[in-house]
Structure formats: structure tokens, C-alpha cells
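Need residues for this backbone.
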């Protein structure tokens, strides 16, 4: 996508010599967009797999064209993801699961449009980066003291909008959501419950780590009036 952005950004800015009626570039008539998409999340959930990882996601986004190459958007999402949990009372096989874990997302995204305020053969590729918050419900099976809670998230992504008409478009996007996992001190204790010598869950590993959640999603969007 970075190569596509570099290849198309220049021609999109200056189309000298093109007959407008036959140009591969067409202006985006509308400047506001809403879209809903569904996707698949992957990832390992950190060292122990205790962070939310693989599962299904639903995402919704509102965006507007702030300047020719730049869009700004806000989005929400919901994921029913898998994660493992720790059983500190067990002497062996102390990581159990997976179990389902509901995760909610809100974010704001800055988007660089490779073709500016135009499409190229109906396509509008882009690169973007988002900042937001992730919230997760508690897992009743997990009595180890771990709780995902509320986490800041950073999400770089690349995608393309394929316009079926001036208003209707398909969106295909690959995104990597990064959040920081923080484990209880008991995960580094060799004998947290007085049951005898057992290997710590985080043997040689840190209590905090950044874990990525790769997501691929596809959806349908609708363009409407210009914001200004």
C-alpha cells in the first residue's frame, strides 16, 4: 500500500494532458462518509495468550475529507475475541482456555489518501493511523487477578475504497491494533499459593508488554454531502 500511495500521489495532484471525460481520475463528489464493516482478528495475545486475540469484529466509522489528501474520522468497534486465563492453583498446565472476551473500541483516525480528493479507476487507496481506547469485560473464569480493563490503543492501517457509484463504496482494510498488557505480580511468583515449587508463569519475561491484534475487515460505505 505504501508503494501504491507513492505511485499515485503525484499523478493525482497534476493530471496535465488528460481528457476529463476519459481520465482514470474522477473527483469525489461528496466529502462525508459512513461505513460499517465486519472482520477477522488474529494474533497471539501476548506471551501467555491471556490478552484478547483471535475472533470476530464489527467496526463502524464516520469520516470527512478535511483537505484533498487528508481525511479525519472517528470510529467504534466491538470484538468477540478469544483469550486464555491463568489458574494459579494448578501445579501443571496453569494456562487454560481459550474463553470468549468481549472488547469495545473507540478511536480517532488521521488518514492520508493516496489519490487526494479523487479516485483512480474507482479506487481510493489510503494509509492511516488511529489513537483510541479499548475496554474489555471481565472473564468470570479468571480468578488470577488479571484484568484487561481500559487500555490506550494505537492502530496503523492500510486499505482501499472501491467506489461502486458516486455514493456507494466497498472498503477493504488491514489494521494492526497495539495495546499494552500488564500482568499481576503473582505471575512472576514461583509459589503464589503455598502449593510447593512451581515455575512462574512469566519465567524470564516482563510483567508488561505490547501485543498486536491484526485485523482484516471488509464493509460497505456511503458518501454524502460535503462538510463545509
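Answer:
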Amino acid at each position: 500500500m505504501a508503494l501504491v500511495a507513492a505511485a499515485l500521489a503525484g499523478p493525482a495532484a497534476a493530471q496535465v494532458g488528460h481528457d476529463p471525460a476519459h481520465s482514470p481520475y474522477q473527483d469525489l463528489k461528496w466529502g462525508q462518509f459512513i461505513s460499517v464493516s465486519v472482520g477477522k482478528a488474529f494474533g497471539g495475545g501476548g506471551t501467555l495468550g491471556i490478552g484478547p486475540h483471535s475472533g470476530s469484529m464489527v467496526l463502524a466509522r464516520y469520516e470527512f475529507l478535511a483537505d484533498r489528501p487528508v481525511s479525519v474520522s472517528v470510529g467504534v468497534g466491538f470484538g468477540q475475541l478469544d483469550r486464555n486465563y491463568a489458574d494459579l492453583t494448578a501445579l501443571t498446565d496453569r494456562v487454560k482456555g481459550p474463553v470468549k472476551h468481549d472488547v469495545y473500541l473507540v478511536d480517532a483516525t488521521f488518514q492520508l489518501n493516496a489519490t487526494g480528493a479523487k479516485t483512480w479507476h474507482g479506487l481510493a487507496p489510503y494509509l492511516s493511523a488511529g489513537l483510541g481506547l479499548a475496554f474489555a469485560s471481565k472473564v468470570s473464569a479468571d480468578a488470577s487477578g488479571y484484568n484487561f480493563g481500559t487500555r490506550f490503543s494505537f492502530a496503523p492501517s492500510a486499505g482501499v475504497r472501491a467506489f461502486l457509484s458516486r455514493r456507494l463504496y466497498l472498503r477493504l482494510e488491514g489494521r494492526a491494533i497495539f495495546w499494552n498488557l500488564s500482568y499481576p505480580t503473582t505471575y512472576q511468583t514461583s509459589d503464589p499459593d503455598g502449593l510447593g515449587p512451581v515455575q512462574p508463569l512469566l519465567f524470564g519475561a516482563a510483567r508488561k508488554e505490547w501485543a498486536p491484534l491484526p485485523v482484516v475487515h471488509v464493509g460497505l460505505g456511503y458518501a454524502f454531502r460535503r462538510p463545509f
